[in-house]
């Protein structure tokens, strides 16, 4: 018994020493389960820079492990050594993959330590330049007159635009012809060319197109208008008659299950500092994203929020039969 107690004490001391020294100059890797250059990758790279100072200037590397709707990268972190040096930064997919995929190589509830929320990214409902509808009301009437004939694009099953499109159709109680693409870029290209009629996608992907007046913006999916110069005059779907309609694509930070509590606290404290960094805030605002300042930056509240998102998206995905496998 004494030997067991001694070993336990030594293990506790070792964990405490690791946490006290963390990160100790050793590089930290943030796994992004999507390709480089996309909106989640941009958030990760901006956050990595903002995290360096509160983490003693340590080097932070972004590792893009894309594929299978984010599940490959997620699984990589779930299996990683739980010492705080491998983290996951992903979006709302943390809450939707459990419904989209019937079998996952990880458990979203038990295989991760939830570190905190990073931002909320609003969506925009935009149309091809050839559409005659001048506003949301006219666009909605046009959809109603053409049931099943309206082509609604998305960046692929499980993408932000796919989820927004499902909720949009559910709210309108009208079915559209959904057209999935392998990414946002080809979807927007076909929208510009008139091959599809509508797209609901993140401000990180659509703001430049709206600013250049290449597409027709009909609504933003927040309850309040956005303050970004290019988007401030676009009405919300809520004020345009779709009461309560709200869709944001958020990002969060995670560590493998079992990461020592003192290390988790250091990471969460660093995240809170990073989210107040003026340069980081400026970069996020430039993308139309809103940095989180509420209690979702706390691990327990972040996890509680993700569970509520699973409950929210689950019935819509199931009703649409939109499974990825």
Your description of this structure?
By secondary structure, this protein is of the alpha/beta class. The protein folds into 2 domains: 2-121 and 249-320, D-Maltodextrin-Binding Protein, domain 2 (3-Layer(aba) Sandwich), CATH 3.40.190; 122-220, D-Maltodextrin-Binding Protein, domain 2. Helix content is 42%, strand content 19%. It contains 11 helices and 10 strands. The chain has helices spanning 2-21, 39-52, 71-78, 93-100, 136-145, 160-172, 184-193, 203-211, 261-274, 278-286, 299-320; strands at residues 28-32, 60-64, 86-91, 112-127, 151-154, 177-180, 198-202, 216-220, 248-256, 290-291. Strands 1, 2, 3, 4, 5, 6, 7, 8, 9 and 10 form a 10-stranded mixed sheet that branches. Helix 6 links the parallel strand 5 (151-154) and strand 6. Helix 2 (39-52) runs antiparallel to helix 10 and helix 6 (160-172) crosses helix 11 (299-320). The longest helix has 22 residues, at 299-320. The chain is globular and about 65 Å long. The protein starts with a helix and ends in a 5-residue tail after the last helix. 45% of the residues are buried. The model has no long low-confidence stretch (mean pLDDT 91).
């Amino acid at each position: 018994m004494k030997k067991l107690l001694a070993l336990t004490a030594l293990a506790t001391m070792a964990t405490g020493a690791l946490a006290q020294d963390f990160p100790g100059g050793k590089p930290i890797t943030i796994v992004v389960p999507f390709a480089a250059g996309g909106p989640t990758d941009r958030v990760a790279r901006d956050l990595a820079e903002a995290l360096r100072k509160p983490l003693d200037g340590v080097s932070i590397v972004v590792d893009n492990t894309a594929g299978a709707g984010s599940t490959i990268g997620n699984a990589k972190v779930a299996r990683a050594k739980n010492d705080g040096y491998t983290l996951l930064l992903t979006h709302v997919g943390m809450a939707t993959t459990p419904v989209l995929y019937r079998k996952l190589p990880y458990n979203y509830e038990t295989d991760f330590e939830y570190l905190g929320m990073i931002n909320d990214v609003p969506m925009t409902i935009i149309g091809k330049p050839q559409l005659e509808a001048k506003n949301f009301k006219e666009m909605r009437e046009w959809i109603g007159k053409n049931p099943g004939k309206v082509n609604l694009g998305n960046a692929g099953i499980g993408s932000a635009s796919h989820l927004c499109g499902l909720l949009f159709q559910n709210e309108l109680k009208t079915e559209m012809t959904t057209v999935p693409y392998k990414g946002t870029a080809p979807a927007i290209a076909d929208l510009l060319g008139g091959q599809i009629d509508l797209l609901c996608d993140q401000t990180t992907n659509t703001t430049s197109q709206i600013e250049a007046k290449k597409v027709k913006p009909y609504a933003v999916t927040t309850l309040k208008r956005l303050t970004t110069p290019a988007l401030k005059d676009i009405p919300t779907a809520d004020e345009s008659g779709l009461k309560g309609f709200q869709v944001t694509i958020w990002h969060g930070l995670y560590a493998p299950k079992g990461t020592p509590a003192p290390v988790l606290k250091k990471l969460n404290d660093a995240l809170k500092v990073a989210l107040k960094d003026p340069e980081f805030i400026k970069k996020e605002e430039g993308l139309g994203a809103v940095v989180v300042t509420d209690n979702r930056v706390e691990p327990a509240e972040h996890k509680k929020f993700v569970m509520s998102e699973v409950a929210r998206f689950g019935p819509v995905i199931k009703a649409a039969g939109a499974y990825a496998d």
